[in-house]
């Protein structure tokens, strides 16, 4: 992106928008599914420690934490790029950056996710990069 001329950078706008949408979907889909699952199923009262682990293994539940961390890392890398070269107008750049920031807000609303230290660090790191490079909020 550094050496390319402005004419060739216009082709990248559509790719950034598609990539942003896919990353947004990759974060929000597991979060909404986890939120739906949490509201429909209640934990049995009286179970402790080992019972929960066996029940989770038996049900074949998938922990999306590693998936979320990879998506947040990728989103951080995208926000570090100089998007002002790709998106000439401020409104288009803000729209593209909001594709990445909205899923972070959704994850921040989940109390269980924020309790996990790695997720919390990645979320705050992403917000710091967004403020430093784009001032969008």
Which stretches of 5+ consecutive residues score pLDDT under 50? none
Strand content: under 5%
Number of E-state strands: 0
Number of helices: 8
Mean pLDDT reading: 77
SS-based class: mainly alpha
Spatial separation of the terminal alpha carbons: 25 Å
Helix content: over 70%
Whole-number tally of structural domains: 1
How would you spell out the order of helices and strands? HHHHHHHH
Task: Return Rg in Å.
Answer: 18 Å
Largest sheet: none
Broad shape: elongated
Characterization of this structure:
The two termini are 25 Å apart. The protein is mainly alpha-helical and 137 residues long. The longest helix has 29 residues, at 12-40. It has helices at 6-9, 12-40, 50-59, 65-79, 83-86, 90-108, 111-115, 117-134. It has one domain (6-37, 63-134). The model has no long low-confidence stretch (mean pLDDT 77).
Secondary-structure blueprint:
Layout: H1 6-9, H2 12-40, H3 50-59, H4 65-79, H5 83-86, H6 90-108, H7 111-115, H8 117-134
Helix pairs in contact: 2-4, 2-6, 4-8, 6-8
Question: Which descriptors would you attach to this protein?
Answer:
single chain, 137 residues, mainly alpha, 76% helix, elongated
What does this entry show, briefly?
With 137 residues, this protein is an all-alpha fold.
